[in-house]
Amino acid sequence: MLDDIQNSKQFYFLKRWFISILLIPVCAYLLYHRGEYGLIDNADLVIHEAGHFFCMFFGKFIYTLGGTLMQIALPSLIIWYFSRNNYKTGIQISSLWLGQNLINISVYAADASAMKLPLLGGNHVYHDWHFILGQLNILEYDSTVGYIFFWAAIIIFVMSILTPLFISD
Question: What is the mean pLDDT of each run of 10 residues along the chain (169 residues)?
Fold first, then answer.
């Protein structure tokens, strides 16, 4: 009888923390390989460009910021949806996606002065973050802005991993 109780506690712990255990190496990989282009980045790029499209009627600044806004808003809306439905795994995976987007944004923002990243459209387009930070007169702080997004990604990753502390099955 005691063995059954022990086994059920172990099963419950494993069931509750299984996704978190899987997320740890994924988060570490994403942080370590910051700036490398991966498969999910193709979807993120489409979402980024859609953000420009949806914001095109709000002036050049919001239009330019729209790509980044969409990269943050879409995963955040999905997190909100899963939160409303108390679906822990959905929250964790969506949070991972949000963090991954924040890492991409951190690389793009930190490149604002150097403008060395290859852009969709080549030399015929302007660098979003060069324009945004230039308009805000903080272009010289592009690395700091990049690190703010990077640390936000780390915080989101930690929250994703620790989600079982806040949401029970």
Answer: 60 83 96 87 93 96 97 98 95 97 97 88 82 97 98 98 86
DSSP label of 167: -
Q: What is the DSSP string of 105-148?
A: HHHHHHTTTT--S--TTGGGS--HHHHHHHHTT-GGGHHHHHHH
pTM of the model: 0.90
Number of neighbours of residue 60 by Cβ within 10 angstroms:
12
Question: Are 144 and 124 contacting, i.e. CB atoms less than 8 angstroms apart?
Answer: no
CB 43 within 8 A of CB 74: no
Q: How far apart are CA 75 and CA 122, in angstroms?
A: 27
Question: Helix or strand or coil: residue 29?
Answer: helix
